[in-house]
Amino acid sequence: MIEILWHGRGGQGAFTASRLLGASYVLAENSYALAFPSFGPERRGAPIRAFTKLDDRPIGNRSEVKLADFSIFLDDTLFSEAAFDELKPGGKILLNTKNIHNDDRIVVVDGDGIAAEILKLPITNTIMLGALAGVFDKVSVAHIEEAIRQNMPEKLHEKNIAAVNAAVGAVRKEAVG
Amino acid sequence: MARKFLSGNEAFAEGVRLARPQVISAYPITPQTIVVECLSEMVEDGSLKAEFIHVESEHSALSCAMGASAVGARTFTATSSQGLLYMAECLVYASGGRFPIVMMNANRSTALPWNIYGDQRDSIALLDSGWIQSYAENAQEALDLALMSYYIAEHKNVSTPYMANLDGFVLTHTYEVVEIPTQEQADAFLPSFKTENKLDLSHPRNLGFTAGPDYNTQFKYKEHLGLLRVREVVEEAEMRFAEIFGRRYTGLTENYRTEDADFILVTLGSISGLVREVADELREKNVKAGLLRLRYLRPFPDEEIVRTLNGAKAAAVLEKDISFGGDGTVYTNVTAALQKAGSRLPVSNYIGGLGGKNISAEEIEQIFEELKQGNVKTVFLGLGGEDA
């Protein structure tokens, strides 16, 4: 099972990203997913977590993700060294930041930069989903596009699909460079 | 048939839509709110032709549903926790009046301390209210039960209200892939609601009357029989369901790797998925572990439990409730069924998940480990701390 831990602040769309990831994954044959937020009262700006679990068989374990294959931060003010304690061996952290991190376990992407350019809004959830697709080949960009079409309001489709693709390009370029 | 990525609440709302209820009356409460929101949107956009009645309380929600049912309308309501308790007076009215109302209950802890998270103390506290009670494991089953609930509740041999329980948050708010049948399939499965138990100007009759000591026992006995007949109607509904939708359910209970099991964990609701995974892992380690999932608590699946547990060396009941000063209520029911059948199987009681406390795979593994020792005990999971 592949487990993804999403970190964001209330209003940044971390749970939506976790859900879009699940919705895109199950578009493939024999694919199962669970997506859920950390349950409880919601408050704009407060740290929240969301979870996506992906597998090739039905998933019985509905508990929160303790150790992640990918830990994704929509907001770099939430990132600290403690993030590594929640990572499986070989796991990756995807970080929306303008900072440079010299650590093989961290993949950086300037999500805010892409958001400003394409979305004209400081929302990076679909961008970080695109970043995941850029480093993790079991998530197809075509399926993410389809999930966006099926689950987001129509007026948001085009820009978010463009943002996803920009993020895929950015992390792949990063990996090569 | 469409495949969608939905939460338990959304999946249940889809099932209700396909059942074409004529009247929906509800009052919102976390974590049930979304099912009611979805249905109100469906009524608004015309995809569901129903009267949606906003009421001022849960007591009114069920009273309103009863009024609608009493003129022969297919009705739906939904609630949770304190809302269900506030309805309690009306629950027994609806069952005594034999109104086949369907209600979704999002299982949630009851106050105090105030807590919005999932456990099953709300519905289990109302086991004696005369309602059918089912417990779904996942969102697909939730949708399917929404459809089947009307078939079962409205069946002329049953005519009893139906409470479909979904674990709050872990099921109501968790997204997973769900197959949504077409309206044509749903219509082929579910006949329209016809009853003689209604107010009808051309056939005047009295409903909701008094029965003193002379006749009260007969009424209550008939109510009891109505619930006992649910077993065969569930079987009939599931056979028809499998023919039309291709998904086969297994009656009041579901067995997983129990045929040759030495140790069987009896549980209900969404935790069953994790027990299944732990049983698989233990089988790899040559521990003969199995799961008996109670899909229904009323009628109580006593025969199924006795049959399944016969041959095991030990069993445990894992439940998200406690009858304070007694045992877990599911445990009391399970052990009574075994005792009636003359079984001397050692059965332990594990109380877990109270107020939304997570139950981990390690804890379930530990239960099976303790079953090997064979001594009967009562354990509260998740107490923690040295004083516990």
Q: Please identify the structural class of chain B as seen in this structure.
A: alpha/beta
Mean pLDDT of chain A, rounded to whole units?
95
Q: Can you count the helices of chain A?
A: 5
Assign the CATH architecture of the largest domain in chain B.
3-Layer(aba) Sandwich
Structural classification of chain A: alpha/beta
Q: Give the CA-CA distance, first to last residue of chain B.
A: 51 Å
> By CATH's scheme, which homologous superfamily of the largest domain in chain B applies?
Thiamin diphosphate (ThDP)-binding fold, Pyr/PP domains
Task: Describe this structure as you would to a colleague.
The complex is a heterodimer of chains A (177) and B (388). Chain A has 177 residues and is of the alpha/beta class. Chain A is 36% helix and 24% strand. Chain A has a six-stranded mixed sheet, with helices on one face. Chain A is globular, with a radius of gyration of 15 Å. Chain B is of the alpha/beta class. Chain B has two domains: 2-245, Thiamin diphosphate (ThDP)-binding fold, Pyr/PP domains (Rossmann fold), CATH 3.40.50; 254-380, 3-Layer(aba) Sandwich (Rossmann fold), CATH 3.40.50.920. Chain B has a seven-stranded mixed sheet with strand order 3-2-4-5-7-6-12, sandwiched between helices. In chain B, helix 13 (329-340) links the parallel strand 13 (314-319) and strand 14. The longest helix of chain B has 16 residues, at 139-154. The relative contact order of chain B is 0.12. The chains are: A alpha/beta (177), B alpha/beta (388). The A-B interface holds A 19, 22-23, 26, 32-37, 39-41, 58-64, 147, 150-151 and B 3-5, 116-117, 138, 169-171, 173-177, 270-277, 356, 358-361.
